[in-house]
TrEMBL record:
The lineage of its organism: Bacteria, Pseudomonadati, Pseudomonadota, Alphaproteobacteria, Hyphomicrobiales. Binds 1 Mg(2+) ion per subunit. Transmembrane segments: none annotated. It comes from Salinarimonas soli. Belongs to the mandelate racemase/muconate lactonizing enzyme family. Its cofactor is Mg(2+). This is Dipeptide epimerase.
């Protein structure tokens, strides 16, 4: 049967505010690839990320350039060599996983060798703001078991750390500096997180300056995000970090993400499953990584004013596996 590829750009408004060290956003802009065959359709969603030199137009064009190959029957294995890791390959890879599951008449998790997916607890993001603003947001979300705290302001992170802990005394806290700290303040900021009982600190330094992590005391485990994309630099990551944030938009899809997760664990790295700000369609394939993850951060749909139809089911911070109607 003939295959047909469709590419679309969609916009989903954010509920409230979403602010990190690199700026603020009011909407999630996603690119969706749909591969159809004989009435079956596989879908994959990606988020073009300027931090990695991606644009919406560029990612959509990269997917379009694969039209002949996809419609000619290019499979997931060949796709890994045909495109570099990144958002465009992620959309196509996840669409092919979805289509392959529908072709086979079995869940995508079965194709991935996973016996069962269970509901998991996701972190919930608190945007960067003044200590008072973040304390107020944390207090409102204090019933959620895990809070991910955006840090990385030019000043005031020590105050933010203390304010959030005071506002949410029982929550597991993760700090995410989004490359916003400097080496000179690294030890004092890590110590403040340790004193406040944080469980993890994510990407404290810029990716190009993270050599400063070598040999220092880390009173809180440190997780690579912007520094870690796929398996190519995993040996270097394992020498600097305690954990790795695996995101499908960085790995270029579920295929590489599954391989990266296994390889990271073999090197003793703790795994976090993360996401860009996107809909349930982007979160669904990432759920296949959760059985091997110590931390799950798939709260994208919770931060949107509206999600897709047939989206993931959330009960508070507990997210359930996707239905076949959504993906896989």
């Amino acid at each position: 049967m003939a295959l047909r590829l469709n590419v679309s750009v969609e916009r989903f408004p954010i509920a409230g505010r979403f602010v990190i060290s690199r700026g603020a956003r009011t909407e999630a802009v996603v690119v969706t690839a749909t591969i159809e065959e004989a009435g079956a359709a596989g879908r994959g969603e990606c988020v073009p990320y300027p931090r990695y030199g991606e644009t919406v137009e560029g990612v959509a064009a990269d997917i379009e350039r694969m039209r002949a190959a996809i419609e000619g029957g290019l499979d997931r294995a060949a796709l890994q060599d045909a495109m570099p890791a990144g958002a465009a390959r992620n959309a196509l890879d996840c669409a092919l996983w979805d289509l392959d599951a529908k072709r086979a008449g079995v869940p995508a998790m079965t194709l991935a060798g996973i016996d069962r997916l269970r509901p998991v607890t996701t972190a919930y993001t608190i945007s960067l703001g003044t200590p008072e603003e973040m304390a107020e947001a944390a207090a409102k979300a204090a019933g959620r078991p895990i809070l991910k705290i955006k840090l990385g302001g030019p000043e005031g992170d020590l105050e933010r750390i203390r304010a959030v802990r005071d506002a949410a005394p029982d929550a597991t806290l993760i700090a995410d500096a989004n490359e916003g700290w400097v080496a000179e303040r690294l030890q004092s900021h890590l110590r403040a997180c340790a004193d406040a009982g944080f469980a993890l600190v994510e990407q404290p330094l810029p990716a190009k300056a993270d050599d400063a992590l070598a040999g220092i005391e880390r009173p809180v485990p440190v997780c690579a995000d912007e520094s870690a994309h796929d398996r190519r630099n995993l040996d270097r990551i394992a020498g600097l970090y305690d954990a790795i944030n695996v995101k499908l938009d960085k790995t270029g899809g579920l295929t590489e993400a599954l391989a990266l997760t296994e390889a990271a664990q073999a090197r003793g790295l703790t795994v976090m499953v993360g996401c860009m700000l996107a809909t349930s369609l982007a979160m669904a394939p990432a759920m296949l990584l959760t059985p091997k993850a110590r931390f799950v951060d798939l709260d994208g749909p919770l931060l949107l004013a509206r999600d897709r139809e047939n989206g993931l089911t959330f009960e508070g911070s507990v997210v359930h596996p996707p239905s076949a109607t959504l993906w896989g």
